[in-house]
Task: structure prediction
Amino acid sequence: MTDPLPDEIDEDLWNEASGRADAIRGFLKDNPGRTSATDIARLAEELDLSRASVFRLIKMFREGGTVMSLVERKRGRPTGHRTLDPAREEIIHAAINKHYLRRTRPSISQLVRDVQADCLSARLKPPHRRTIVARLKDVDLRKRARRRSEHKIEKPTTAVRGSFRPARPLEVVQIDHARADVFVVDEETREPVGRPWLTLAMDAYSRVVTGFYLTMDAPSRLSTSLCLLHSVFDKSSWLKERDIVEPWPVAGLPDKVHVDNGADFRSRAFKRGCDDAGIAIDWRPPGTPRFGGHIERLIGTQMGRLHLLPGTTFSNEQDLGDYDPKRHAALTLRELERYIALDIVGSYHQSIHGTLGRPPLAVWREHEGDIPLRLPEDRLRFWLTFLPEQERTLRPTGIHLFGLRYWSAALSADVGRTKRRLLIKYDPRDMSRVFVRRPSGNFVEARYADLTLPQITLHEALTARRALREKGRREVDTRAIVRTVLEQRELVEVAAKRTAAAKRARSRTHAQPDKRELGTLRGIDSSKPVPFVED
Result:
C-alpha cells in the first residue's frame, strides 16, 4: 500500500505529529551534540511519552526531518481502511454513482469539483483529490467500464461463455462499416476529396469476405444493401471488369445476418428485403461490441493494410508526425476499391487465419459442396428491392436522372399517355442503366440515350456536374453583369420619369378647357360681305 501524503492524514494525527516535531526540532537545536539522560527525561515529560518512545521519535525525525516522519502508523491496519468520517465518505460514494459513472464519461477533475461542492453545501471540509481518487479505485473495474461505456476496459474484464461458432458456411454473415484510414483523390483533377467508407460482409464460419462496398457517403441503408447485393451474387463479371484474375467463389443468401444497431440496419427497406429473401436479422445488443468481434477484427486488419498506401491517416494521429495525408494522397476511389479487392482475394483469403489455423478460402472450398446454396428466386426483384430509388416524369426525350438521359424502346408506348411520375431504381456503382417501373407495374431496363458514353458511378456523375457548374461560375464576367444591371436600372428610371411627365401633360390638357370668347351670330350684319384673310 502506498504511503499517504500530508493532506490525506487525519487532522488529529497530523496535529499530534506536528506538535512532536516542533518539540524535537527545538530539542535538537538546543542539544546539537550528545544528549544526557536528564535531557531525554525532560523531553519525555514534555511529550508525555516514555523515554524509549522519545528515543525512537528522535531517531525517526533525524532520518526523515519532516512531520510525516512522526505520523503514527498503526501496525496491521487492514487494506482499504479509511480514516475519513462517515458523512464525507457517503458524499464521495454518492457523487461517484451520480456524477462519475455515466456514459458521458466526465473527468476525475469534474468528480472532485462535485464532491467538494457537495461537502461545502453540507458544511464539511472537502477531502483532498487523492482521497477521492482512492475511493474511485475501490469501484469494481468492470462495473465502472460498463456504466461509462468504456468498451476497451470492459472487454478484457468480462467473462465470455465459450465462443460463437456457426455450424457451416453462410449460416451467419456479419456486416459492419468503417471509415477508411486513407484519403482518395478525384478522377479528373487528382485533388484529395476525402476519406471513403468501407462496408464489409464476412462469413462467420469460414471467415471469407462475402462482399464489400466502398463509397464516399456516410453509412446508410444504401451502403448496407449494396454490400449485401455484392455478397449474394456471383462475382466473376465484377472481377473481370477490374482485371482481377484471382477467384472469389463466394455467393449465396445467408441464413442470418449479424448487424449493428444503427439506423441504416433498421430501415424498413432493408428489413423487408431480408424478410422477403428469407434472411433473418440479428441486431447486436447495445453496448456489446464483442458480439461483432469477427467482423471488427477483419475490418481492423483491412485498415492496417491501408496504412501502407500514400495518403494514409494511420489509426493514431500521433503516428502521422509531419506527414500530410492529403498532400500525399494518390489513389482514386475506383483504384482503392481494386486495391482492397486484390488484397482480399490475393492475400487475406490465401493466408492462414489465426483462429482457424487455415486459409479462409481453403475452409470455404472444403465445404463448398455441402453448402445449401440459396439464390434469390427472382433475381431482378431481389436486386431492385435493395437499390435506391427516385421518381421522375417520362418525357418525350426519355428519363432524366442526375443530369443523365436514359431511354428504352419499351417506354415509347407510355410517352404522353401518363402524367404520373414513374419510380426509377438505380445502382450507384453503375449509372449506365436504370430500371423504370411502367404504369403497368413492370420494370424495364433503360440505358444511356447516348450509347457511346462509358460506365460511371453516381459519385463520378455528381462530381462532374459540380465541376461543370464551378467552371461556369469561373467563366462568368461579374463586372459585365454589374454594369448591365446598373444600365438597366438607369433605363428604367429614365423611362419612368418620361412616362410620368407625359401623364402629367395629358392630365393638364383635359383638366383646363379653352376659355377664349367665340362670340355669336347675333349682331353680325350678314348683308355685308365679310372679307377673307387673303383679301
